[in-house]
Amino acid sequence: MIAAMGFRLLAPELGFGAPRPDGWRSATSLGLVVLVGLTASGKTTLLTRLEQRFGGGAILPDRRWLTDQIILPLYRKGRRLTNRIDRFKLTGRFRDEHPGGMAEILARLALPRGIETAPVLFNGLRGENEIAYACRSLPRARFIALTAPDFVRLRRLVERRDAFDRISANKALGNKALGNKALPPAAGETVLG
Question: Which CATH number fits domain 2-177: 3.90.580, 3.40.50, 3.40.1000, 3.30.420?
């Protein structure tokens, strides 16, 4: 599906698809530095520190931005996504159709010639299929894998206050999901009624 997409400009110095216009280079020919790890494992923090240390370089947009620009428009048909569950359904569909996942997107990115003189950094490959695809299709890339304990990742996620992490109370939906059984109060919770 994405292999058939023609070239389009995503940002002033970032394109996607083929055939590439004159003066543009495929990401497959660049010595990318790719950060790999689960959500909240520290990729963005490391990316910031690498940028400071190298004094610049090119940072490709992250996984979420590329998903918003390329993957979601393929499936959402104008619908607005308001939560992670809907987003995961659509990205899961993409993954089913494209086993290389985000690595397939990364391999089809293009940058203008000359930008490759500095490090080109990417934050956001996950999972064995994506990494294997990236290793095959990005022969000049280097990979940095980050890990963090689940508790640390959870704390970082909670501290982000991401718009996709909203919880809304819907008593009717909650009761229906529980077979009309009421939820017991949480520790320290007062039930008014």
Answer: 3.40.50
